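Morning!

This is the sequence you dropped in the shared folder:
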Amino acid sequence: MYGYLFIVLLVSFGDLLVNSKHLLVSFGVLLVNFNVLLVNSSF
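The structure's back. Tokens below.
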């Protein structure tokens, strides 16, 4: 019983980690695109 609960907790925690990594990556891409836009508009 507790083993099953532990596995469910572990899987949900892993999903959270993966999702946060995807969020960080997309946020970084947005930042890079914004910087490129700023540099292009300044020229």
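Headline: Residues 1-43 form one domain.

More detail when I'm at my desk.
O.
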